[in-house]
TrEMBL record:
Keyword Methyltransferase: no
Taxonomic lineage of the native organism: Bacteria, Pseudomonadati, Planctomycetota, Planctomycetia, Planctomycetales
Name used for this protein in its record: NIPSNAP domain-containing protein
Similarity remark: Belongs to the NipSnap family.
InterPro entries: Dimeric_a/b-barrel, NIPSNAP, NipSnap_domain
Natural source organism: Fuerstiella marisgermanici
Amino acid sequence: MPTRFSKILIAAILMVTVCSLPSSAMADVFELRTYTTNEGKLDDLNARFRDHTVALFKKHGIESVGYWVPLDQAKSKNTLIYVIKHKSREAAKESWKAFIADPEWKKAAKASEQNGKILAKAPESVYMNATDYNPKFENADQGTDGVYELRTYRCNKDKLKGLDSRFRDHTMKLFKKHGIENVAYWHPADEPASQDTLIYIIRHESRDAAKESWDAFRNDPEWQKVAKESQKDGDFLRERPESVYMKATDYSAIK
């Protein structure tokens, strides 16, 4: 029978153990996943997520953040992009293990593929950590006409901190000024991408509004000044940013 002293000692040891864990072990971890379907199978994939997968994710401790289909004509017919959140990287591993082994999931997966395999290849997955300037996105009263944009920036060596500073101190405010809504900003969790990559999502009222906002942003004297001053010691980006315009699915938490 444990004594009162031993109970206190055990509690103290547990507290020290938890506090000694690296912050990455305890922080929420996001996962960006991209699914490419076989021809004509995107509707089946969306139905499976809508009717089964999202609920099963919740059952196994996986939080759904947002689900989108690209607006590009080709990818709009075979691609699903989504972001989910885990309590930690270890929790992600355990949740996926439990999800895959769930009899309800196995039944739903089998039933959804009676007329052919849905996915054309294995899903792409990127684990991500939120930046320290990640905003609190308000989803209320957004309407259904909004267009989301997933952007990926890859930096030259040792330039990611400078890019982060520019977003934190200037870019996000200028986005808001020109009608671009900041949704989320992440860094990949794994090296080498964690050292040189920024992934973020923004929201526009429409595709036309996106074009107008980007034109106004690029022509803003304040932005031009900031961009010039921040890159006195060299360009931040080693390649052109990747941009994917997207529409939220009807079952997405983010609309």
